[in-house]
Design a protein that fits this description.
The chain has 348 residues and is α/β, with parallel strands linked by helices. The chain is built from 13 helices and ten strands. It is 45% helix and 11% strand.
Length: 348
């Protein structure tokens, strides 16, 4: 009787899973030094790291929810012995590992195709040496994107890019960063495309394919709320929760409902700072939400993932991409991004 009951429970669970829209979740493993670098703080050159602190916290969280995700790893971190153990733990836990560039420079869209290829290969090799994982997905630091990046990714055999954030708030985020940063006018000019432009809000929320000379490359955008094109990632919910946790939760549920009503399969974005509190990283007090303790953020993360799993069949990005490709008939888009003429002033 128990065996029969268990069988039907499993069957019902499978029926419910198949009736849900597919969704994915990823985490940009931006390290302490990369935040300081974008902010213009010279301390970044010492490559301070919080990965040994964050990774066990993050893995315990996802394990408690029986959820595997995609970690976008910065290649430079894979060359640091302090991070080797934590990065191996991510792979051993069964999570997908993807490429987040080697030097984490949000002005990467100014690179030539040859420079992009070198950056990607260096990151790919460093990550594979430490984790044994061959990366086949990419997200540009600061959501940077360019024809050169897409062409290089396709030629290197990457399965998807995930660098488009279809939101109108990118320029506001850039203004905040630059207003709080300690950097020269030349350095600020280099960051002139950070987080994109107003026009980013007109990109498709649904997956599509970049039409390239050598083929096509699937784009899985970071999901924003339909119609309003407002950010939906956990960092934004935590920022709202500083004013009202009830408001943040209501905003989250509104987003989930709008995704389902419009048939949007969300791809949700996380960051280490969604799990680390002010007691963990006092150096990042300038960052929104870093005035809250870890317990506050973990509570919001728990509420998010419980609800996300209830509404959607949540998978890592590679699996999401596989399902999208299986369906076929992707919308084709010609990439036509302006080329930055300013050269990077800093190299990692």
């Amino acid at each position: 009787m128990d065996a029969t009951s268990d069988y039907w429970k499993q069957e019902r669970a499978e029926v419910m899973r198949l009736s849900k829209l597919t969704a994915s979740v990823s985490l940009d493993l931006d390290n302490l030094w990369s935040y300081l670098k974008v902010h213009g703080d010279p301390e970044w050159k010492d490559y301070p790291t919080y990965l040994p602190t964050f990774v066990p916290i993050g893995l315990d969280f996802f394990n408690s929810h029986s959820q595997t995700i995609t970690f976008f790893v910065v290649g430079k971190d894979a060359t640091d012995e302090r991070n080797a153990g934590p990065l191996r733990q991510i792979a051993e836990a069964g999570h997908e590992i993807a490429n987040h560039s080697f030097n984490h420079e949000p002005w990467m869209q100014s690179y030539t195709e040859a420079q992009v290829t070198e950056e990607l290969k260096e990151a790919e090799a460093a990550i594979e040496r430490v984790t044994g994982y061959t990366t086949r997905g990419f997200r540009g630091p600061g959501y940077c994107r360019s024809n050169a990046i897409f062409n290089s990714l396709h030629k290197m055999g990457y399965q998807y890019d995930a660098s488009i954030l279809p939101s109108i708030l990118g320029p506001i985020a850039r203004l905040y960063y630059l207003s709080t940063a300690k950097m020269s006018a030349e350095e600020k000019k280099t960051r002139g495309d950070l987080f994109g432009h107003w026009s980013e809000g007109f990109h498709s929320l649904a997956p599509f394919a970049w039409k390239l000379e050598s083929g096509d490359l699937l784009e899985l955008p970071v999901t924003t709320i339909p119609v309003f094109r407002l950010p939906f990632h956990l960092s934004y919910l935590i920022w709202l929760a500083r004013f009202s946790k009830s408001l943040a939760i209501a905003y989250m549920e509104l987003g989930f409902r709008m995704f389902r009503l419009r048939g949007v399969e969300p791809s949700y974005l996380l960051h280490p700072l969604d799990f680390l509190g002010k007691e963990d990283v006092p150096e990042l007090s300038f960052f929104p939400g870093m005035d809250k303790p870890r317990a506050f953020k973990m509570d919001m993360a728990d509420r998010f993932l419980n609800s996300y799993q209830k509404h959607f069949d949540v998978v890592p990005m590679f699996e999401h991409v596989r399902r999208i490709r299986e369906r076929g008939s992707l919308k084709m888009v010609n990439p036509a991004f302006p080329v930055m003429t300013s050269n990077p002033v800093e190299q990692g």
